[in-house]
Each structure stands twice: as structure tokens, then as C-alpha cells.
Amino acid sequence: MPAIDPTEYEIAELGPKITDVDDADELHEMLELEEAGEDRAPVKTLIEDRIEKVEAEDDGELDPETVDLTEMTVADIANMVRGVDDADVLRDVLEREREGKERKSAIAQIENRIDSVEGSEEQAGEDVEYVPPEEKYPELDHPTNDKRWVEGTVGAEYRDMWVYCETQAGELVDVSKEMLGKARDLMDQYNADYDAEERVVAVLVGADASDHVEDATAYGADLVVYMEDDRLERFRHTPYTEIVTDMSRAGGELASEGHADVDWKDYHEPRYTIFPATNNGRDLSALVQGALDSGLASDCSGLYIEEAMISNPAKVGNAGDNKEFERVLHMKRPDFSGFEYSTILCIDKPNRDFHPQGASVIPGSFEIPDPDYDREAAVVEYEMDLEEEWFEVEVTEFDRLSGGVDLTGNDVVVAVGRGIGDDPTTGIELALDLVDAFEDADLGLSRGVITSSYAFDSHVEQYVTEARQIGESGQVVEPDIYIAAGISGAIQHKVGCDEADTIIAVNTDPEADIRDFSDYVIEGDLFEVLPRLTEAVEKGELAAAVEASDD
């Protein structure tokens, strides 16, 4: 039995894990498990690609001077040239690629490696001159000039992984539990790799923050730092940002008055921080990371820590040089195409430290661990003065919705995407007609509809809300039947519907990615197909309607 059972993972989770498997036999066993289980084509492709790579490595290291580039993927070429330090060999590889398949992306990878190895002719061997921004651009206003820590965090000490734990309605939300479990795994491995003793630090802020200390400990925290005040019952940008920022600086060079010497923290700022990619978490993560003068990788679905070899002169200080950065948090997120993942790194510069390395995590990206209520953690009740001006706006009355749009319990979900673009209002109407034809169904939307500038008539506008979004940043549904009309099938959307028993896709594009994970594909215009499906459901003939036919 292999260590990883692919049937227990979504493809977004499986991708980062499978890269650590170097045993071809184990990979073949994983493939057999998937084929005997859910038999998902994208997952099988992922495993098969890994098998091909591992078996190629077992056959011996590729020789860039003799390898047949036409038999290699762009990713294979990128991995190969990454280890080549001879510019002449790289130029030969470049010439062979141009004479062969002439793939632009492969050529770009080779050219980038050549630049990394030797730098440009003008810059090779020259130090990159550092000029402070206020001197380089004296005509510009520089509001950060008053922040002494902008140039003051060079070679400072950073430790621990901090997890902001969000609560709602008196409960620790699931994504907080996911992040604590992931942080626990990461830091356990980190401590083993670097012979270190760094901690998972849970951060709680709210009117009932102390109520969640036990849960935060049970899900993986070594230290819980909480701030409790009745005025913090509702999330507010300014006080929450000020509190988390102040906690992060306690015990360091920039600690506020009364927090310079604390017995639970003796370093400058956290090494890593992670936040939930919820509405409030997205706001807070950007504000805190900005206040700490670092960066943020938002909406991530994968995290791991390892070294990174960097050749960018802005990062290494000298054109043509390579430098290995240690303890780098690799933050994976869907790229703007929606079909691939990008890995974001937060790398220091010669005259500038960028810490904490920060990310916000999409809910559902990681498994919720089993809580261990026998675990123990240090607990700190944080105290600081909260300025009255932070609470100038007072909420005097509010209503809590008894329920939102919960699509998770429906037998059928009818979802529409950008395919409604020719006539958005009619597209929503046709989808609602199909919803009404089923006994237990509701309407879902792809992110493309939510973020579009479509103009909807008022009678359907109420249905076009973010609450109906399906995907990584929306709801995850598992209905008996999922009908996707006019949806291309980006990775983010796939994660939201892949567990449906039966997926029926309606699309005019014969190459749409959604075909790869659908049980039935109806190639046609949704404006023509949806009315026919509605009629078929009303007659009890849906199964017959989706079977292959000439019309």
C-alpha cells in the first residue's frame, strides 16, 4: 500500500505531495488505486507524468548535450537546464530547440537560464549599485521615509510560523483548524530539517478570544497569543491590524512601549505568517503584511518550505551570481489563466529583509486534523491600549442572516458560467427554469460570472451574488447531479464540483477543460440545450436526453 492514496485527495492537494515520491513502483500502485477508485483523468495524468519523470531519472541523468529535446516536455527542459552552468552547452540546447519543435516557452526557459549563468554583457561581474529610493527619486513623495524599519530590517532575527485564527459566531472556523494542522506539519518537518525548535503560534483576537485557546492548542499550536476586549466583538480593520502588528513586533527591535522585553518572544518578527483567505482574513492579511513592510501571496492552496536558488541581480547583488536562499516558504496559488499554478516566493534583497513571509490560504485547501486535547501550549494574554479613535464608527444595530445561499445540501446544482455572455439575463432565466424542474435543486455560478461586467435585469440580478460562487474561493458541492453550462472548467472551479456523482457539461468548445472531468458532455449552445434539458426533466427523461446522439 503506497504512503499516499490519491483517492483521498483533490488534484490541487495531490500535486505538491506527489513531487516528493521518487519510487516508480509506489507511483504505479497509486495509479492502480486511482483507476480502481474514482478514475479521474487529470489525476491519472498527474501520476503518469511523475512516473515518466522518475523512470527517466532511474535510467540515468539526462545529458543536455545529447538528449532528444523533441521527446521532452517544456517542464522537462526547464528542469534540465536549471542544473546546467555552462553557457555554451545552453546555447547548443537553444539552437537544437529552435531547429526542432521551436516552442516559445521552452526557448524562453533556456534563454533565461543563459542570462542567469552569465548575466548581460554590460552587467557581468558588476555590483548592483544600491541607491535609497528618496535619493533615486527625490521628486517623489515617500510616505515610507518616516518608517525607520524599512531600512532597519537587514539581518534581523526571525522565528516561528504565526497563524491568525479567525472565529465566527463563537466558533473557530474550519479554515483556522486547517491552517493550524498544516502549520504543525510544516514546522515539525522544518525543525527536523534544520535541527531547530521553532513553534506554531496561534493568534486570536476578539471579544471571546480566550474561549478558543483550547481548540487552537488541540489543532497544533505551541503558543497561543490572544487579545480579548468587548469592543472587538466585530471585525474592524484598524484595531485588528494594530493588535496583530503589535503582537508581531513584541520582543523585537520595533516593539511598542511595554512590549520590548517579553518572556515568550525574543526575535524581531515572525518568520512566516498565514491568514485565512476569507473576507475578513483577506483584508487583515494585506493590512498586517503592509504594516510589517513585507509581501503577501494571496489565495494560496499549497505551502511547503525548502531552499531556492536565485540568480536575479536585484536579489543576489551581482549580475551573473547565484545564491541559495534557505528556509523559503513556497506559496502555491492558481495563476491568472485559471488552469495552472504559480509558486510565489518572498526573497530578501541585499539591503532589505522581507519578513514575515506571508500567505492567505483558501478554505478547504488542507485537511482538518484530528484534534488532540491532551496537547499543551504556552498561553499569553496580550495587553495593549486600544485607542478610542479606532472605534469612532459605532454599529448600533445589525441583523444576522438566518442563512445564506447553501448549495451543499442540494441533490442537483445547475451552474452557469461566461457562456451566458451573449444574453446574461436570459442565461440566468434558462438556468432557473431548469432548477425549478427538479425537486431539490439550486443555482450556482462560476467566478467568471461574479467578476464580469454583465448587465442583468432586476428580476434576476438578485441571483448573481458571490454567495452562489462555486470553486476554490466559493462553495464546494457534492450533489447527485451537477450541470455546468457555459463553464470552461478552470482548476479553481473543478475543485468546487469534482466530487459530484454525475457531472453534465454543456459547452460549445470541443477543447474545454471541463470535458476532462465530466461524465457527460453536450456540445452545444446553452441557450438551445438548457430548454431541452428542462423539458426532458419535466418528462422524466433526463437520462435519455444526455445520452450520445446526432442532434
Automatic annotation (TrEMBL):
The keyword ATP-binding does not apply. It comes from the Archaea. InterPro entries: DHS-like_NAD/FAD-binding_dom (IPR029035), ETF_a/b_N (IPR014730), ETF_a/FixB (IPR001308), ETF_asu_C (IPR014731), ETF_asu_C_CS (IPR018206), Rossmann-like_a/b/a_fold (IPR014729). Residues 84-111 form a coiled coil. Pfam families: ETF, ETF_alpha. Residues 161-395 form the Electron transfer flavoprotein alpha/beta-subunit N-terminal domain. Signal peptide: none annotated. GO terms for molecular function: electron transfer activity; flavin adenine dinucleotide binding. GO terms for biological process: fatty acid beta-oxidation using acyl-CoA dehydrogenase. Keywords: Coiled coil, Electron transport, FAD, Flavoprotein, Transport. Belongs to the ETF alpha-subunit/FixB family. This is Electron transfer flavoprotein alpha/beta-subunit N-terminal domain-containing protein. It comes from Haloarcula pellucida.
